[in-house]
Design brief:
Number of strands: 0
Length: 458
């Protein structure tokens, strides 16, 4: 987790006599003047000071703001963001055009390690991603090539084995984080699952087999994302979107768009996250169960809330709740079994927190914590950290730190890079507000010891 502090950014801010909150506000105001919705907060500024990557557009806005304040030209490079030229060049989506293309791409991805750091910040060209989404929306399904000659014949028993393996790895992911099982899963996918897709099978078995393979591929994307390898995760997601197109699985394809939205939102690209979530809603309409539609709308709400658009976020949250009210009327796919009322509340409490709706945030986060099944350890950790941040919003320091401590005590979850970011974000915020407070000092020591134990276990 250790990074080199961005001394140049810190020096520029000191010279400009601007605080984290002040810079965040100036950046949002400058972006709004350009018609851009920017969700920068003082927490994001602190992360950049500590060495985190930044989106090129955001860095450009920051440089312009500091140029105005210092009355001289400041470039992103002057602020220590030297990696904006090459490592942050837009990532090609590379949407495969044929079934052999997507299978070849997935085989290549399954040879890449998730624990290999990806250089720079993931930047995806808008036009490139829009082209992939449009291809998915308008394309006709490839269809299954049934009963072709092969030395291997696949049956439903093989399909059940793949689904059971996916379920097992998903439970490991929920409990221990994406970095735990990714290596074993990619080996299983490459050597056990992909060869089945080139074998012989009936049309019924083939459809189920491609569906099961898509679930494993999606889980590889999610575990890479949770491990912090965003480039690999993005490539898996776009490839899995194409894989879902083979059998015209619109519900699963929409789920992948929702995952892409989730990742874009996490990385701070809120406008892209909103568009991806809305594409999921539109692409699945009339083809998905109410529970799936609730999930899609929840992703839209998360993105709108992070973009500081309370009207759009409120509308999407209401739509998610309306869909979920009818959740039991549809026959849901097995992969959606985790999305219960607690999971929905977990998504909504993030929205309330990001919109800084204090009472609603505490109420929703507490409900999510109370209702989340402990077997979903990472989800419970997320919800506890959101509850801690919500208490902090309300000025309740003791409750905030107590709740965050409970989350950190579930130490297995610390293997998730996303959960570690929740913790460090909270540390940054609570330390800025209550520097020197003994309760905060003790919490920071608890986190340090927990991370040390995790490293000793590696």
């Amino acid at each position: 987790m250790s990074r080199e502090r961005n001394a140049q950014l810190i020096a520029a801010m000191d010279e400009a006599k601007v605080s984290n909150k002040g810079l965040a506000k100036r950046m949002k105001d400058a972006a709004a003047q350009r018609g851009i919705s920017l969700g920068t907060t003082h927490v994001a500024v602190q992360r950049w000071r500590e060495g985190s990557g930044i989106q090129p557009r955001t860095a450009a806005i920051m440089a312009d703001v500091l140029s105005t304040k210092l009355r001289r030209k400041i470039t992103p490079g002057d602020l220590g963001f030297f990696d904006l030229s090459e490592p942050s060049a837009p990532q090609a989506v590379g949407y495969p055009s044929t079934v052999p293309d997507v299978l070849s791409m997935l085989d290549g991805l399954a040879q890449e390690r998730a624990d290999t750091p990806s250089p720079g910040q993931l930047v995806v060209a808008e036009a490139d991603l829009s082209s992939a989404v449009l291809s998915w929306i308008v394309a006709r399904p490839d269809g299954i090539q049934a009963d072709r000659p092969s030395s291997q014949r696949v049956g439903m028993r093989d399909v059940r084995a793949v689904r059971e393996a996916a379920s097992t790895f998903m439970q490991l992911d929920f409990k221990y984080g994406g970095g735990h099982g990714h290596r074993a899963l990619r080996h299983y996918f490459r050597h056990e699952v992909l060869p089945l897709l080139d074998a012989s099978y009936s049309e019924r078995v083939g459809n189920e087999l491609f569906s099961a393979a898509s679930e494993v591929s999606q889980l590889l994307a999610w575990t890479a994302y949770d491990a912090g390898n965003h480039r690999l995760a993005h490539k898996y997601l776009t490839s899995t979107l194409r894989l879902s197109q083979v059998i015209d699985d619109r519900m699963f394809g929409a789920r992948i768009l929702g995952n892409l939205s989730h990742q874009a939102n996490y990385l701070g690209n809120h406008a892209q996250a909103i568009q991806l979530a809305r594409a999921a809603v539109a692409g699945a309409k009339g083809r998905a169960t109410p529970r799936v539609m609730a999930l899609n709308s929840a992703m839209e709400a998360r993105a709108c809330a992070n973009a500081d658009d309370p009207i759009a976020a409120g509308r999407a949250m209401n739509e998610a709740e309306r869909h979920f009210e009818r959740a039991d009327t549809g026959e849901d796919p097995a992969w959606l079994g985790y999305f219960d009322s607690a999971e929905l509340m977990g998504e909504l409490c993030h929205c309330f927190r990001d919109l800084r709706m204090r009472r609603e945030s505490v109420k929703a986060a507490q409900r999510a914590v109370d209702d989340t099944d402990p077997k979903y350890a990472r989800t419970l950790g997320f919800c506890r950290m959101v509850l801690a941040q919500s208490h902090l919003l309300n000025g309740e320091l003791e409750a905030a730190v107590t709740t965050a401590s409970l989350a950190v005590d579930g130490g297995d979850t610390l293997q998730s890079s996303r959960f570690r970011r929740y913790v460090t974000d909270f540390q940054t915020e609570v330390t800025a507000l209550h520097a020197g407070n003994p309760t905060v000092t003790a919490f920071n020591e608890q986190v340090r010891e927990a991370m040390a134990r995790l490293e000793d276990d590696d």
